[in-house]
Amino acid sequence: MRPLLYEFTATVFSFGRRKAAYDRLAELCEAETGEKVLDVGCGTGYLTRRLKAAVGPGGAVTGVDPSRPMLEYAVRHVPTCYFQEASAQALPFAEGSFDLVASSLAIHHVPPGQQPEAFRELRRVLRPGGRVVIMELHGSSHGHAVDDLPGQLEAAGFTVTDDAPIQRRLRCVRAQAV
User: What residue range is the signal peptide (predicted)?
Assistant: First the structure.
């Protein structure tokens, strides 16, 4: 999908609640000044820019996405962050590189058979005690929900600390690396 079409579609299908959902997600990430953050499936950088505001000039936010057009849009609109082409299943970062990994509406795009690998990658790039925060569709009626998100995180080496709705169709699962 083209970035401008994606932005339009995301705005329309959120019924005007996109900003509120992402502002709430950024709060739930609890990013702190100076932290290193990874936004997996960053798309156009909508969450990335909110995370950068939280970590301040002393922190760093990197966004990864498999779509080059999305990344090119993000680079133009969020010049204070780093962007790299990559999938959740093969993150090009050293073990323990980040304090926080966030992902918004991206994991359901990973084929179900590859999701366990993606969760292991999220765990690998987090420092011990690091956090992961994932916003995904709530329920399976949408055809894109991630099966047993808390269970998959636990199987990958996380302790789930919270699983709650953000809005009617969105949920947020937070976990800590064991």
Answer: none
Nearest C-alpha neighbor of 55 from the set 40, 36, 74, 42: 36
pTM for the structure as a whole? 0.90
**What type of residue is 167?**
Q
15-44 confidence digits (pLDDT tens): 677 788 899 999 999 999 999 999 999 999
- Mean pLDDT split into 10-residue runs, the chain, 178 residues: 70 72 94 98 96 97 97 95 98 98 95 95 98 86 71 97 89 96
How far apart are the C-alpha atoms of 148 and 137, rounded to whole Å? 12
- Cβ contact 133:174 at 8 Å: yes
Cα–Cα distance for residue pair 13/29, rounded to 1 Å:
23
Q: Which of 56, 8, 57, 48 is nearest to 26 (CA)?
A: 48
Contact 176, 159 (CB under 8 A): yes
In whole angstroms, give the CA distance from residue 89 to residue 118.
4
